[in-house]
Amino acid sequence: MRSPELKIEAITPVAGNVPLDLTLRTPCAWLKSPAAPIFGGCGRPCPAHAPPGNRTYAHGENGLGGAVFSEPTTKPVATPAAEMIRQIVRKYPAR
C-alpha cells in the first residue's frame, strides 16, 4: 500500500471465511487512514452454492484468529464494490 508505483482506488472486502460485516471491519480497524475508500463486496462466498462463510474453528470469532483491534474509526462507503469496480474500469479503460 505504500508503494509509489501503485495507486489504490478502492478496498473491496468480501465474505468468505467469515461474514461480510466482519471482513468490512478488518481494513477499517487496521488502517487508521485507509489508502482508499472501503466498499463492501459480495455478501456470500463464491461459488454461490458454497455454504455461508463462518470458519470460527480456524479463524476465531472475529475472523482474525483472535487478534484484537480497536473499534474502527472509518466506515465503508454505501456504494457496492461491484459498482465502484465498474467505475474504476471505465475510468482507466486502457490499463
Structural class label? mainly alpha
Which descriptor suits the 3D outline? globular
Number of separate domains: 1
Instruction: Note poorly predicted spans.
Output: none
User: Strand count, sense and closure of the main sheet?
Assistant: none
Order of secondary-structure elements: HHH
Number of helical segments with 4 or more residues = 3
The total count of strands amounts to: 0
Distance separating the two termini: 19 Å
Radius of gyration over C-alpha positions, nearest whole angstrom? 15 Å
Q: What would the average pLDDT be, to the nearest integer?
A: 80
Could you estimate the helical fraction of the residues in percent? 25-40%
Q: Hey, roughly how much beta strand do the residues contain?
A: under 5%
What does this molecule look like?
The protein has 95 residues and is mainly alpha-helical. The protein has helices at residues 20-30, 56-59, 81-91. The two termini are 19 Å apart.
Helices and strands, with pairings:
Elements: H1 20-30, H2 56-59, H3 81-91
Key attributes of the depicted protein:
95 residues; mainly alpha; 3 helices
Short description:
The protein has 95 residues and is an all-alpha fold. It has helices at residues 20-30, 56-59, 81-91. It has one domain.
